[in-house]
């Protein structure tokens, strides 16, 4: 008999989420059936999209959504023996039962020295969001200039690093001097604190006087109003999020976009990372793992040694 602790939605959010919006419950899990596995959560995801998705997808009393890295602790499924590490969409719960469908193992070649929590981050959903938004939606090309906001976040920081790997100039915005300093360590060409600049428009223009080829938007709101007029001819915009508006109860007011979109022939597309599945998703995870081991870790930790298998 297994009891799990589960965080549920006690009431829908009004403004920023608070501890009182959630309730921790204990639930009893049934015995395993043939083909099922018992999972023990090791890491849970907490992502900005939940602020909006909860309202659309959950009723009060429902288990909180989210992915987790989990270990198989009991198995009646030969594809997932005990001890297997998987990524599961089980929500905020300590133990859960799965029939094996939609469980994802770590990418082949994951070294023991690499934290498995990255399977929820850079080599997981947030990394794939940056990967597909930048390379598929924005169709990034070498030598272009990229602007990304919320650049110190789980998605934005990977956007900047992929853009640098692809030979592009990257401008990033963040909300504190400490975050800006970190962006510069990650290789951003220009990074600034949007909360302290006198003029966002002038700061963007100074960072790239010729404008921007690609805009990876995590924020929306006034920031996007400032960027759109500075997009280059045939610029591409990937709409990933709108975190500036998530906790607002007031309608947002944007700019009139027709002129810049028409005369600069811009393209803007919103996306959700779950669009990409199968082989293309696996290629994304393989690329991200390779870049973490070959580029990102050596850049952040100069004494890091390449894994021998990666040099073959």
UniProtKB/TrEMBL annotation:
Its EC number is 1.3.1.48, 1.3.1.74. Coiled coil: none annotated. It catalyses: decanal + NADP(+) = (2E)-decenal + NADPH + H(+); leukotriene B4 + NADP(+) = 12-oxo-leukotriene B4 + NADPH + H(+); 13,14-dihydro-15-oxo-PGF2alpha + NADP(+) = 15-oxoprostaglandin F2alpha + NADPH + H(+); 13,14-dihydro-15-oxo-prostaglandin F1alpha + NADP(+) = 15-oxoprostaglandin F1alpha + NADPH + H(+). SMART domains: PKS_ER. Pfam families: ADH_N_2 (PF16884), ADH_zinc_N (PF00107). Belongs to the NADP-dependent oxidoreductase L4BD family. This is Prostaglandin reductase 1. It comes from Sarcophilus harrisii (Tasmanian devil). The lineage of its organism: Eukaryota, Metazoa, Chordata, Craniata, Vertebrata.
């Amino acid at each position: 008999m297994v009891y799990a602790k589960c965080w549920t939605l006690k009431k829908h959010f009004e403004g920023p989420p608070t501890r009182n919006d959630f309730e921790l419950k204990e639930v009893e899990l049934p015995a395993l059936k043939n083909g099922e596995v018992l999972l023990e959560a090791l890491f849970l995801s907490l992502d900005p999209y939940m602020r909006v998705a909860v309202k659309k997808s959950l009723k009060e009393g429902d288990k909180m959504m989210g992915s987790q890295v989990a270990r198989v602790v009991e198995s009646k499924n030969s594809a997932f023996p005990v001890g297997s590490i998987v990524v599961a969409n089980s929500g905020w719960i300590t133990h859960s039962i799965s029939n094996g469908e939609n469980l994802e193992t770590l990418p082949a070649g994951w070294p023991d020295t690499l934290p498995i929590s990255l399977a929820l981050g850079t080599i997981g959903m947030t990394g794939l969001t940056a990967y597909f938004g930048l390379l598929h939606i924005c169709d990034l090309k070498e030598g272009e200039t990229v602007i990304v906001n919320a650049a110190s976040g789980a998605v934005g920081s990977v956007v900047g690093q992929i853009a640098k790997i692809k030979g592009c100039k990257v401008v990033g915005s963040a909300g504190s001097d400490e975050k800006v300093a970190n962006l510069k360590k990650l290789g951003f060409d220009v990074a600034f604190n949007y909360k302290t600049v006198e003029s966002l428009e002038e700061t963007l223009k100074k960072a790239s006087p010729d404008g921007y080829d690609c805009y990876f938007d995590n924020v929306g709101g006034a920031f996007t109003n400032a960027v759109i007029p500075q997009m280059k001819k045939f610029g591409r915009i990937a709409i990933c999020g709108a975190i500036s508006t998530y906790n607002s109860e007031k309608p947002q007011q944007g700019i009139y976009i027709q002129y810049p979109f028409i005369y600069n022939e811009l393209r803007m597309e919103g996306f959700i990372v779950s669009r990409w599945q199968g082989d293309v998703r696996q290629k994304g995870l393989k690329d991200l793992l390779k870049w973490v081991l070959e580029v990102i870790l050596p850049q952040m930790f100069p004494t890091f040694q390449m894994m021998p298998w990666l040099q073959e």
